[in-house]
C-alpha cells in the first residue's frame, strides 16, 4: 500500500482546491462569452469538457489520498470514494452522450452536491473538535444542500444562467477545499507547537 507524507497530502488537497477555483473562473468566462447561438453551443461543449475533466481529476486525487492513508483509514472513506467515482463516471457519460444538456448537468451536480452535503452532516454529527467548528461544518453542509436546490431550480433555465450557478458551485467547492486545507494545517501546527 502507498503511504503518503502529510506534505504530499496537503499539496494534493491544494491542487484539488485550485483546480475547482480555476474551473469556476473558466466557467464564468465561458458564460460571459456566450453572446450568440454559436458561442452558446461551443461554450456548452467546452464547459462539459472542463467539468468532466475536473471531476475525473478530483476522483483520481481522492483515490490517491485514500490509498496514502492506509487500508484502515481508507475504509472509513468508502462512501466518499464511491460518490467521487460515480461522479467521475457520470461526467464521462455526460461528455460522451450526444443528448447531454445543461439540465442533465445541473441535475447531476445537484445530486453530487446533495450527497456531499449529507456527508458533511454525518461528519458534523460525529465531530470531535470544538462546538464552534462543528457549527461551521453544519453551515458548510447547509450551503452544499442550498447549492443542490439552486442547481435544480436553474436546470430549466437558459444555459447562461445555469452555467453561472455551476461556476459558483465550482468556486464554492474549490474555496472550501483551500480553507479546509488551511484549517487542517492550523490544527496540526497547534498540536505540534512546543510547550511553554
Element layout with pairings:
Blueprint: H1 6-33, H2 37-69, H3 71-76, H4 78-96, H5 102-125, H6 131-154, H7 159-192
What is the N-to-C succession of helices and strands?
Answer: HHHHHHH
Helix content: over 70%
Assembly state (oligomeric): single chain
Strand fraction equals: under 5%
Radius of gyration: 18 Å
Shape: globular
Class by SSE composition: mainly alpha
**Largest β-sheet summary:** none
Head-to-tail CA distance between termini: 39 Å
On the 0-100 scale, what is the average pLDDT?
81
Question: How many DSSP helices?
Answer: 7
Return the domain count.
1
Q: How many beta strands in the DSSP annotation?
A: 0
Low-confidence stretches: none
Describe the structure.
With 196 residues, the chain is an all-alpha fold. The protein has one domain. It is 86% helix and 0% strand. The chain is built from 7 helices and no strands. The mean pLDDT is 81.
List keywords for this structure.
7 helices, mainly alpha, 86% helix, 196 residues
Summary of the model, kept short:
This protein has 196 residues and is mainly α.
Amino acid at each position: 500500500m502507498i503511504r503518503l507524507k502529510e506534505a504530499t497530502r496537503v499539496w494534493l488537497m491544494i491542487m484539488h482546491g485550485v483546480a475547482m477555483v480555476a474551473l469556476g473562473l473558466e466557467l464564468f468566462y465561458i458564460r460571459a462569452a456566450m453572446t450568440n447561438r454559436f458561442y452558446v453551443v461551443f461554450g456548452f461543449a467546452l464547459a462539459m469538457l472542463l467539468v468532466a475533466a475536473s471531476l475525473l481529476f478530483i476522483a483520481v486525487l481522492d483515490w490517491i489520498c485514500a490509498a496514502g492513508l492506509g487500508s484502515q483509514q481508507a475504509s472509513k472513506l468508502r462512501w466518499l470514494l464511491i460518490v467521487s467515482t460515480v461522479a467521475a463516471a457520470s461526467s464521462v457519460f455526460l461528455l460522451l452522450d450526444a443528448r447531454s444538456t445543461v439540465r442533465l448537468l445541473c441535475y447531476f451536480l445537484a445530486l453530487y452536491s446533495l450527497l456531499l452535503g449529507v456527508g458533511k452532516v454525518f461528519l458534523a454529527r460525529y465531530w470531535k473538535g470544538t462546538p464552534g467548528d462543528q457549527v461551521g461544518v453544519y453551515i458548510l453542509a447547509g450551503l452544499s444542500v442550498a447549492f443542490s436546490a439552486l442547481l435544480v431550480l436553474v436546470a430549466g433555465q437558459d444555459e447562461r444562467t445555469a452555467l453561472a450557478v455551476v461556476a459558483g458551485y465550482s468556486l464554492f467547492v474549490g474555496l472550501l477545499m483551500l480553507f479546509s486545507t488551511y484549517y487542517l494545517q492550523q490544527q496540526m501546527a497547534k498540536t505540534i507547537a512546543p510547550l511553554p
